[in-house]
């Protein structure tokens, strides 16, 4: 069976790029800098279901993106001071990994972001800022 993205992930996030068959997406929520990593492998719901080489790439990518996000800021929000990384899958079973940039002034701080408030759709500037941030991080990763 071929890979297809869960309709909820597709509706709630924007595709930016891919790295080693892992989609790199951003959540369409202006309140946070929120990256999603989605391995393009059909019928995978758990990290341990991934082949070990894909597990390593996914975790390396998550750690690298999180590390590079920390301390960054977008013109529309304060600098990121904490990274939340999570694999949950209770609402959407398709394996996906969240990397959420947090700061003490965000709406949910210090609680988790899930279930707090209502998402605010990104405007074109917000999309462009997040796209550039992610593409710059991925470019740096590919050069190293």
Characterization of the model:
- Helix 2 crosses helix 3.
- The mean pLDDT is 94.
- The chain is built from three helices and five strands; from the N terminus they run H-E-E-E-H-E-E-H.
- 31% of the residues lie in helices and 22% in strands.
- By secondary structure, the protein is of the alpha+beta class.
- Strand 1 and strand 2 (22-27) form a beta hairpin.
- A five-stranded antiparallel sheet has the order 1-2-3-5-4.
- It is globular, with a radius of gyration of 15 Å.
- It has one domain (7-112, 119-139): HIT-like (HIT family, subunit A, 2-Layer Sandwich), CATH 3.30.428.10.
How do you describe this structure in short?
The protein is α+β, with helices and mostly antiparallel strands.
Going across the biggest sheet, name each strand in turn: 1-2-3-5-4
Radius of gyration: 15 Å
> Mind summarizing the main beta sheet?
5 strands, antiparallel
Structural class: alpha+beta
Low-confidence parts: none
């Amino acid at each position: 069976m071929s890979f297809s993205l869960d309709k909820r992930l597709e509706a709630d996030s924007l595709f930016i790029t891919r790295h080693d068959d892992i989609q790199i997406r951003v959540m369409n929520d202006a309140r946070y800098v929120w990256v999603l990593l989605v391995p393009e492998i059909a019928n995978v719901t758990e990290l341990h279901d991934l082949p070990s080489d894909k597990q390593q790439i996914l975790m390396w990518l998550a750690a690298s993106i999180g590390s590079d996000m920390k301390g960054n800021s977008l013109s529309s929000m304060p600098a990121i001071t904490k990274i939340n990384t999570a694999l949950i899958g209770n609402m959407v079973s398709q394996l996906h990994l969240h990397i959420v940039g947090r700061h003490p002034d965000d709406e949910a701080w210090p609680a988790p972001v899930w279930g707090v408030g209502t998402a605010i759709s990104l405007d074109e500037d917000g999309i462009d800022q997040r796209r550039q941030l992610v593409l710059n991080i991925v470019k740096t990763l590919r050069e190293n």
